[in-house]
Amino acid sequence: MKIPEHIEVVIKPTLRCNAVCSYCNVTQKPVFMDLSVVERLFRMLSDYVNREAQCSITILWHGGEPMLMGAEFFKAVLDLDRKIFEERPTHLMQSNLTLATPDLLDVLHDLLNDRAIGTSWDPFEGYRRLKDGSAYLDRWYEGFESAVAYGFRVGMVYVVHGESLKYPQKIYYYFKNLGVDSLTIIPLEEPAGAFDGYRLEAPSWGRFLADIYEVWRSDNRSLPLEPFTGWELLASGADATAHSYKESLNCCEPTLAISPEGDIYPCVRMLDISAGKVGNALSDSLDSILMRPDSSWRATRREIIRQGECGSCQWWKFCAGGCAAASGTRCKTVWCEGYKLFFEATHA
Amino acid sequence: MRDEPVVNVPAALCDKVGFGHVVIRSASCEDIVRAYKASDDRVIGVELESLAGNVSVLSALPQGLSLTLRLRPAEAANVYTSSWLSDRFALAALMDVEKGLLEGVKLVTSAQIPVVMNLDSLSDDSELISVLDYYLHERHLQVPIEFFHSLFTAQIQGAALSLADVYPESPEQNLYVDESGAITGSSRLAKAGMFFGSVTADPQIDQESSLYKRLINLKKDLFLSGSSCASCEAFDVCAGYLRVVDTTFDCTAWLRIFGEIKSRAKEIVEDLERSSKQ
After folding, report:
1. Which of A252, B17, B116, B180 could make an S-S bridge to A8, C-beta 3.0–4.6 Å?
2. Is B236's CB within 8 Å of A176's CB?
């Protein structure tokens, strides 16, 4: 087995969330991660990187809403992190920020050693709501201001849906004006639950990308905007390690997505729908998990789809097959037509 | 860096304001000098609202003090009869945006006096556009014309700067006391009848008033209220300033002005980059 240079560990300490977003895929089980799972997981990772010195680890705290775990939980996590790892891994968090209280941010300031938090918001009404009925944007803005005051860089992930399509310029400037440090746009995949918003088709996604790319270019690229920033680096050849699409969305291989019970999946989205489990942090070794063929399913998928039309596609280096979870293990990206439309309009 | 606001106050009420860095204003040179002498070292500048009186009285003020002349464009030629003011003081002309502004600006800048355009009234866009053209293309211009100059140089330097910085009206930065003693953030807010305090009240400033809170957190207010400013391409240079008084103000001409400033600044940056590569 080839030793990975990097392992992306996505820990979902709970799948519960204080929000209801109309396009969310997560099955909100009322389970919270026990610290014994964290300790076992950290020891497993620490043993591995102690043995395989070239391998680095990033830990992304995800959910559900990870801040629901509270300050005491993350204080204990920080203690374990300092006790177990000889060299601390990079810790990041994805949060809706509506629970970002000062006592929690005090702890996260020490735990999240890259000082980066990813978050989400939708300027269109009704897509993101809080369960307690309070105003989502008011609470988000408060959390955002606090996070910035604590010195965090805040990156925004925006899910593009059918209603977004007419407003690429407004959406770009809205997030730029908010003052976030970066923006990542992703297409709304088929949601698991009921969704009463406008759907997104592949050609529309491509046209939206082309439109917002033009806005971004005219604005001197002043807000880092993925996937464009990564794609342009890749196109310029200035950075040989620049990320392709899969990597710009943090889909590293291997990815270990950890459920509150310690179950391990090779992809965050598969965890969300409880499909394709590859092991458990309490009962399996990391070697045994990484050796399973389904732990490297993205690479296998890429080999398979390159035998088809993707093999001769001039845009492969940007797309790399797209999101595997959305498209299936043997199929090219469901957004292929849109990406081609975008690349032909902007890079041809 | 100032940690207290600048308070623009009528000379007659100067003794009522016990905080901040003070700018004394009056149409009477005698009143300004009298108020200055009665004040302590909090006075950082004076604003003369008319050149009609005996300007020579101002020679009693210390050399180098900031002196702002409030000028209607039609009065611009008067600066030549008081040219000694620019030798003695840090002089600037605050000019109303109205018909004849371009000619007025030409006269004042030809006397090497910096101009600040007074945005209390935002009605005459065409004069503003003419002055922008003059600012950007007049090769003999040697003094700044604000707000153009600050925005333009900030764009070239890649610095964050907006109208709200050039014309501050957040109570933490700027206060304006009108002739009746009512307190607000700027003269345009006073003209619009928007106040959050009074020099005769106790406390003088009502920090719980909605206007005070709005001005302290203008950006947050714009986003939370669903203002169209939140998604505006010019928010980086406007910061919602144009719609503080009238939330329905038509910004169309202003977008052209901001666009022109940005594109000219971009050209210069590109020229500089090209020349540094050669």
Report:
1. A252
2. yes
Q: Which of B23, B30, B82, B74 lies closest to B51, judged by CA? A: B82
**In angstroms, rounded to a whole number, what is the distance separating the alpha carbons of residues A296 and A292?**
8
CB B33 within 8 A of CB B67: no
Predicted confidence band of residue B121 (pLDDT cuts 50, 70, 90): confident
B223–A138: do the CB atoms touch at under 8 Å? no
Give me the pLDDT at residue A274, please: 86
Q: CB-CB: which of A137, A167, A173 is closest to B224?
A: A137
Q: Are B269 and B156 in contact (CB under 8 A)?
A: yes
| pTM of the predicted protein model | 0.92
Q: Comparing B117-126, B153-162, B227-236, B262-271, which segment has the lowest mean pLDDT?
A: B117-126
Q: How far is CA A316 from CA A185, A204, A221, A246, in A?
A: 19, 20, 24, 11
Q: What's the pLDDT at A3?
A: 85
Among A243-247, A289-293, B34-38, B235-239, the minimum mean pLDDT is found in A243-247
Exposed / middle / buried, residue A76 (Cβ in 10 Å: 0-12, 13-18, 19+): middle
CB contact A220 to B (< 8 Å)? yes
Q: Which tokens sit at B212?
A: 């005070």
Nearest CA in chain B to A140: B224
**Cα–Cα distance, B218 to B33 (Å, whole number):** 36
Q: Are B17 and B9 a contacting pair, CB within 8 Å?
A: yes
- pLDDT for the residue numbered A233: 85
Asked if the model's pLDDT at residue B40 lies above 70, the reply is: yes
Kindly list the distances between the CA atom of residue B193 and the CA atoms of A301, A319, B79, B214, in Å, as whole numbers in the listed order. Answer: 67, 58, 32, 15
Amino acid at B207: Q
Q: Are B17 and B177 in contact (CB under 8 A)?
A: yes
Yes or no: say if B151 and B237 are a contact pair by the CB < 8 Å rule: yes
Q: What is the DSSP string of B209-250?
A: SHHHHHHHTHHHHHHHTT-GGGG-TTHHHHTTGGGSS-TT--
Question: Residues A234, A236, A237, A238: is their CA dihedral positive or negative?
Answer: negative
Element (H, E) at A212: helix A202-218
Paired tokens of B221:
């207010």
Residue in B closest to A173 by C-alpha: B231
Q: Which residues of chain A are modeled with pLDDT < 70?
A: 1, 190-194, 196, 238-251, 348
Rg of chain A over all Cα atoms, to the nearest angstrom? 20
ipTM value for the complex: 0.89
Out of A145, A173, A220, closest to residue B233 by CB:
A173
Q: Report the pLDDT value the prediction gives residue A193, as an integer from 0 to 100.
A: 62
Q: Please give the C-alpha separations between residue B29 and each of B14, B43, B50, in angstroms, as whole numbers.
A: 15, 15, 9
The answer to whether the Cβ–Cβ distance between B231 and A219 falls below 8 Å is no
Task: Judge whether A170 is closer than 8 Å to chain B, CB to CB.
Answer: yes
**Backbone angles phi and psi of B247, in degrees to 5:** -70, -10
pLDDT single digits (tens) A209-234? 999 999 999 999 999 999 999 888 88
